[in-house]
Design brief:
single chain; mainly alpha
């Protein structure tokens, strides 16, 4: 999971670099083409990846793919103009939003302790974005939209049947994002760029492909409640890449808000682990 977060965050940093010379939709389209090719190539080496899906699973994946496309584009639009670590710090609230959405829409049981953690976590988000500050703008709002659609995507993922191949979900999820970006490029025009810029996009596609692969490996081989908190290592990479590539460093307010979001997120994962362990023990007895 740590390698997954490294790959995803490095990909974000390279995409932000590419936006300096290539239009955003063109960058997303080129990255998407290479990424799709790599994932499909890897899927062809595996057994039982391409299989017929039930109508229910097809519908879920359809909505999930749409939500992923919106989340990807709003986030990339945001990091085009705002510091990478600031955007990632807000995105760390996704697990809290998923927990809340699971309780509201999937009738999952969430105790009072986790509800307090969720409220405190979103308080941390308010500290990060600081609505009273001049730094609160359209791009901050776009990251908040990303949180909403990324959370909806993850909630839908929980509803998929257990026998649906993860690689097939990854492929079907990547197609709409690439297709929408390509469609918009037809109208917004194609900008010629040096080969070095396309090399950056190829590197980004490799990283995001490895990120998908490492994520699947982590979730399939590790216990989710133990593995998931390591998603928060993305902040370490975001701060590092932000400083390395763009000379960006978060202020103390961002650090404090991020610490609050991450600590409450880890707490909710821990409470979920204890709840599942208790439920399993009661079931076995």
């Amino acid at each position: 999971m740590c390698a997954c977060m490294f790959a995803f965050t490095f990909n974000d940093a390279l995409m932000k670099v590419s936006f300096g010379s290539i239009p955003i939709f063109q960058s997303i389209f080129v990255r998407g083409l290479f990424c799709l090719g790599l994932i499909i190539l890897f899927a062809c080496t595996q057994d039982n990846v391409f299989k017929k899906l039930s109508r229910r699973d097809s519908t879920i994946i359809g909505f999930r793919s749409g939500f992923e496309a919106i989340a990807a584009m709003t986030f990339l639009f945001a990091i085009q103009k705002m510091p990478l670590a600031n955007a990632l710090s807000i995105l760390q609230s996704v697990p809290l939003a998923v927990c809340m959405a699971g309780a509201i829409f999937l009738s999952e049981r969430v105790g009072w302790r986790r509800w307090i953690a969720i409220v405190l976590g979103f308080g941390g988000v308010l500290v990060i974005i600081d609505p009273s500050s001049s730094d609160f703008n359209l791009y901050t709002f776009l990251v908040l939209i990303t949180v909403i659609f990324a959370s909806a995507r993850d909630v839908l993922t929980r509803s998929l049947s257990a026998d649906v191949p993860s690689l097939l979900v990854a492929i079907l999820t990547a197609i709409p994002t690439c297709a929408v970006a390509g469609f918009l490029t037809l109208f917004l025009g194609w900008k010629e760029a040096p080969t070095s810029d396309y090399v950056i996009l190829i590197e980004a596609s490799l990283l995001i492909s490895f990120g998908y692969l490492f994520s699947v490996m982590a979730m399939r081989q590790g216990e989710i409640s133990f593995v998931s908190p390591f998603r928060f290592t993305a902040m370490i990479w975001a701060i590092g890449f932000g400083f390395l590539f763009f000379g960006e460093l978060p202020n103390l307010q961002i650090y404090f808000g991020t610490l609050l979001v991450i600590s409450t997120g880890i707490y909710t994962f821990r409470r979920e682990y204890l709840k599942n362990k208790t439920s399993l023990g009661n079931h076995e007895s």
